[in-house]
Design a protein that fits this description.
The radius of gyration is 17 Å and the shape is globular. β4 and β5 (121-124) form a beta hairpin. The strands form 2 sheets. It has a 5-stranded parallel sheet with strand order 2-1-3-6-7, with helices on both faces. It has a single domain (3-195), classed as Flavodoxin domain (Rossmann fold). α1 packs parallel to α7. By secondary structure, it is of the alpha/beta class. The two termini are 21 Å apart. 39% of the residues lie in helices and 19% in strands. The chain contains 7 helices and 7 strands. The protein has helices spanning 17-32, 43-46, 53-61, 71-82, 99-108, 153-163, 179-195, and strands at residues 3-8, 37-42, 85-91, 115-118, 121-124, 131-136, 168-173.
Length: 203
């Protein structure tokens, strides 16, 4: 059965503007795939703690996957493995990912579990899957109109690529701090999702 994992990374949770259009797209997709399921995670409500010493020592020691310090990491990794599609709605904070999403990455990007080393290079252990990242920013971050750096896009490409997920696409809701363009940007985001291979024909 097809399963979609939807991650909310905004402090506003599912009420954030990026999450709003993500909901619309995911619900439309599910309506056309009634046997499919949607699993949601509000990463702020999850309230992940920074990785602790026991976790680091378990990595260094090569402890088995069922080690107590890997319990939450295993839960999140298995959730990621179980989905056939992944959608992330995230703001851009200080030019990059918000802390809630960074902590989720710290828990799922794990040596010996989601990637290994081969000839000194990191090689992903997960199966590739369609992944759509909906990025909300107050300023303009793409194209000639960009007014601030973007350290989010390539970072996420590198993170998912390290785990074996290369089919990653981005939808940008830019300039959302400007009331005169915010609604137009939201509509442009909906149109972009409508042509996204993950949602095409269902938005």
């Amino acid at each position: 059965m097809s399963r979609l994992l939807l991650l909310h990374a905004s402090p506003l949770g599912s009420e954030a503007r990026g999450s709003t259009i993500a909901y619309q797209a995911c619900n439309a997709w599910q309506s056309q795939n009634p046997r499919a399921s949607i699993v949601e995670r509000d990463l702020n409500k999850l309230a992940l703690e920074p990785l602790q010493r026991g976790y680091v020592e378990a990595i260094v020691d090569g402890s088995p996957h069922h080690h107590d310090d890997f319990t939450l990491s295993e839960e999140l990794i298995q959730e990621l493995e179980a989905c056939s599609r992944l959608v992330i709605a995230t703001p851009m904070h200080n030019f990059t990912v918000p802390s809630s999403l960074k902590l989720w990455i710290d828990y799922v990007l794990r040596h010996g579990r989601t990637f290994t080393y081969q000839s000194g290079r990191k090689v992903g252990s997960l199966q590739d899957k369609p992944t759509t990242v909906i990025v909300t920013s107050g300023g303009m971050v793409t194209g000639a109109a960009a007014s601030q750096p973007d350290h989010l896009t390539q970072y996420l490409r590198d993170v998912f690529g390290t785990m074996g997920i290369s089919n990653v696409r981005f939808v940008y809701l830019e300039g959302m701090a400007r009331l005169d363009v915010a609604m137009d940007m939201l509509e442009a985001g909906r149109r972009a999702l409508a042509t996204d291979p993950l949602f095409a024909g269902s938005v």
